[in-house]
Write the structure tokens for this entry.
Amino acid sequence: MKNNLICVLIGAPGAGKGTQAKNVANYYNCKLISTGDILRENVENRTVLGLEAKKYIDNGNLAPAQIVVSMIKNVIKSSVENKAGADKSFLFDGFPRDLEQNKLFEQILDELNLSIKGVIYINIEDDIVYERLTNRRICPKCNRVYHLKFNPPKFDNLCDDCKVKLITREDDKIDVIKNRLEVYKQLTYPLIEYYRKKNKVVEINGNKNADDVLKDIISGINCAR
Ligand SMILES: [Zn+2]
């Protein structure tokens, strides 16, 4: 990846975005920035921003865009300063998630003299999201993830390692998935349109298996640069 190549990875819940983000960041040796991780770190380390965010999270709300973007700015700044003149490539996982975050994000990139080179959009059909998520089971003890069809446990509904009964994550229940998908579309589709008009969207067919999706992402990025 070229110096200062900044990419954003967008995809519905169940699109395999987290896995692909790690693979792509490894492949290009760029810094992966995931909002979820950054929020967690700030809250755990009790930073000023983390404590502020916690108030919202504890009440079941999302942290405001301004707080999230400030956290991200700190990460970019310290990373850029530590590697003066060196590679400044970043891959953002799930951020920005809407136009509001994006506006603030573009401002800080401007300040740091950086810009988004491409938005990788993993497009996946709703049916496949349901298929993947409703069949997902997790071991409550070791967090190992199973899929009832593609990666089932050896014994019915028991973890191979711990022999503990598997559970369905709250997030993977059908009504919750429906809601997550709706929220995602409402927030993120306008963002995809915004970048489409700027010719920066690399659309990837997310209905394939993970290896093929990764290949498509890499060839998509190589074409976009
Ligand atoms: Zn287990």
Remarks:
- Helices lie at 17-28, 35-44, 48-58, 65-82, 99-111, 126-134, 174-197, 210-224.
- Residues 6-125+185-224 form a domain with the Rossmann fold fold (CATH 3.40.50.300).
- The first strand starts at residue 6 and ends at 11.
- Residues 139, 141-142, 144, 159, 161-162, 164 surround zinc ion (CB under 6 Å).
